[in-house]
Amino acid sequence: MVVVSAPSPAADAADVAGLTYEQARDELVAVVSRLEAGGATLEESLALWERGEALAARCQQWLDGARARLDAAREADGDGPSRGAGDDSGS
Questions:
Q1: Rounded distance, CA 52 to CA 91, Å?
Q2: pLDDT in tens, 19-66
Q3: For residue 90, how far is the Cα from the chain centroid?
Q4: Each residue of 60-79: b (16+ CB within 10 Å) or e?
Q5: How far, rounded to the nearest angstrom, does the alpha carbon of residue 6 sit from its chain's CA centroid?
Q6: Nearest-angstrom CA–CA distance, 72 and 12
Q7: In this structure, are residues 31 and 51 in contact, taking their beta carbons and an 8 Å threshold?
């Protein structure tokens, strides 16, 4: 059996930082599938989990940025800030 060592956390974070939302999401789906399939060693599973956490954080960064851009566009159009799902004021 070949054991593949995981890249260092700093190198992994730099790699993830350059991914588009779609790239990070697609790789995250693949990581989850590999974890769910089982059969990986503990070390491999931990490396996959850590990669998945980094990918999920990158996706969240993209989503947060998109939300901020939408909110800014709404405010510029005079629509005001967006309301949260639980906010029923003005409705």
A1: 39
A2: 999 999 999 999 999 999 999 999 999 999 999 999 999 999 999 999
A3: 33
A4: eeeeeeeeeeeeeeeeeeee
A5: 19
A6: 32
A7: yes
Contacts for 30 with CB less than 8 Å, ≥ 6 apart = none
Domain residues of the chain, as ranges? 22-76
pTM exceeding the 0.85 threshold for the entire prediction:
no
Distance CA 37, CA 70 (A): 38
Token code pair at residue 84: 């949260």
Q: Give Cα 3 distance to the centre of its chain.
A: 26
